[in-house]
From TrEMBL:
Originating organism: Glycomyces artemisiae
Record key words, sorted: 2Fe-2S, Heme, Iron, Iron-sulfur, Metal-binding, NAD, NADP, Oxygen transport, Transport
The protein's enzyme class: oxidoreductase
InterPro entries referenced in this protein's UniProt entry, alphabetically: Cbr1-like_FAD-bd_dom, FAD-bd_FR_type, Flavoprot_Pyr_Nucl_cyt_Rdtase, FNR_nucleotide-bd, Globin, Globin-like_sf, Globin/Proto, MRET
Enzyme Commission number, as recorded: 1.14.12.17
Protein name from the UniProt record: nitric oxide dioxygenase
GO MF term (any one): oxygen carrier activity
Superkingdom of origin organism: Bacteria
Occurrences of domain Globin (ranges): 1-132
Pfam families named in the record: FAD_binding_6, Globin, NAD_binding_1
Upper classification of the organism: Bacteria, Bacillati, Actinomycetota, Actinomycetes, Glycomycetales
Reaction catalysis annotation: 2 nitric oxide + NADH + 2 O2 = 2 nitrate + NAD(+) + H(+); 2 nitric oxide + NADPH + 2 O2 = 2 nitrate + NADP(+) + H(+)
Cofactor(s) for this UniProt protein: heme b; FAD
Location of the FAD-binding FR-type domain: 139-239
Family statement: In the C-terminal section; belongs to the flavoprotein pyridine nucleotide cytochrome reductase family.
Length: 368
């Protein structure tokens, strides 16, 4: 019987050592099993805390593992795109245990070691089994060609890709992708269209300051280039059934999945209010597209919002969540929320504070 409480306590002791933990973990892994280096991006800066922190958090919560089995299975299926094989899992487990032992110091005991090993085995087996099963019906990744690349402004591009074989997704989900311009560095983006008969997918990418992949996708990618695309994931932002009103609150490229949802809703229309915000009118990079949709569908209301409208571009001044609440659009509605993580967090808090039921607010949790 694994003592989950003891694991959690041990994990908080280790995690308190901050950046040293992933550094030690990856050095151990790459020194002991050099072949695993090829599974990770060349630039490890953004990767550094991802794997080891996720492992520590999940494995030490082994007592609630049933709740995360679907997530672990999805992770296992998704990790095929990195070239992760069943044979790599023991190497990762070994490096994880060596890291935990190193940072536990005198608190490391044979009993804790045995608990970590058993918990890791359970997690690894769940992931590896799901990956093996998926190999029978889906590729590890889809090769796709860039068929459109439109710079909307200095920071943002609308990129259209054509996967070689059909990649199934539902509006509100995201896909991860990887470009040869930044080998093995995968990032997530949300399709901005409902599935099309020709299988093409539209992505809206904003270059973030110092960002490794987004800057390459916006500035360097060209039509004809190829990308690798991982399986679609996420359920947080997918459309809930019903015919009642929908309020959409989006910031920046968070409008992309909203556009996909609007295309889906067009098949069985219901009232939709889209409040889309950016710092300034220049940040509303596809306002023309969204206005065209609002003109086409009488059930769709579009309210563009900005923090400041210095040049009188006609957008409402205020945050999308505050304006949507003030206009009564969130009351009794299913509310969908997407944008930069800080904006999603603050908008969610604002909505709950304004009396909107938490179970009516839908978003993709951070870390998805
Ligand atoms: C579910 C989901 C859907 C998404 N959909 C979209 C979408 O539709 N469109 C979109 O544009 N984006 C989307 N994103 C965000 C996207 O996945 C990327 O995170 C974003 O493009 C930045 O990637 P990057 O490689 O350019 O930045 P990264 O290189 O990952 O860096 C991100 C930021 O962290 C900083 N940073 C990097 N390394 C370090 C370090 N060691 N220490 C401190 N700071 C560091 C960088 O300076 C930068 O500001 C989505 C994210 C998720 C989780």
């Amino acid at each position: 019987m694994i003592d989950a409480e003891r694991l959690k306590k041990n994990w908080s002791l280790v995690a308190a050592r901050g950046d040293q933990v992933p550094l030690y973990f990856y050095s151990t892994l790459f020194l002991t099993y050099p072949e695993t280096r090829d599974l990770f991006p060349m630039n490890m800066a953004a990767q550094r805390d991802k794997l080891v922190n996720a492992l520590g958090a999940v494995v030490s919560n082994v007592d609630t593992i049933d709740a995360v089995v679907p997530t672990l299975q999805a992770l296992g299926r998704d990790h095929r795109k990195f070239g992760a094989l069943r044979g790599h899992y023991p190497a990762v487990g070994e490096a994880l245990l060596a890291t935990l032992e190193h940072f536990s110091g005198p608190h490391w005991t044979p009993a804790i070691a045995a608990d970590w090993a058993a918990a890791y085995e359970l997690v690894a087996a769940t992931m590896a089994d799901a990956a093996d099963a998926a190999a029978h019906y889906a590729p590890a990744w889809w090769d796709a060609e860039v068929v459109g690349h439109e710079r909307r402004d200095l920071e943002t591009a609308i990129i259209t890709i054509a996967p070689g074989t059909r990649l199934d997704f539902v509006p509100g989900q995201s896909v991860s992708l990887c470009t040869d311009l930044r080998p093995r560095a995968w990032r997530q983006y949300s399709p901005a269209n409902a599935p099309r008969s020709d299988g093409t997918i539209e992505l809206h990418v904003r270059a973030v300051d110092g960002g490794e992949v987004s800057t390459a996708l916006v500035s360097l990618l060209r039509p004809g280039d190829s990308l690798r695309v991982g399986p679609a994931f996420g359920t947080g932002l997918t459309l809930r059934p019903g015919s009642g009103p929908v309020a959409m609150i989006a910031g920046g490229t968070g409008v992309a999945p909203m556009k996909a949802l609007i295309e889906q809703i067009a098949a069985t229309p219901r009232p939709v209010s889209l409040y889309w915000g950016a710092r300034s009118p220049a940040g509303l990079y596809c306002l023309d597209q969204m206005q065209a949709l609002a003109a086409r569908y009488e059930w769709l209301e579009l309210v563009a919002c900005v923090d400041e409208d210095l040049f009188g571009a006609g957008a409402r001044v205020g945050s999308p969540a505050e304006l949507a609440v003030a206009h009564g659009r969130c009351t009794g509605a299913d509310v969908y929320l997407c944008g930069p993580s800080g904006m999603v967090e603050s908008s969610g808090k604002y909505l709950v504070g304004a009396g909107i039921r938490a179970d009516a607010i839908h978003f993709e949790p951070a870390g998805a």
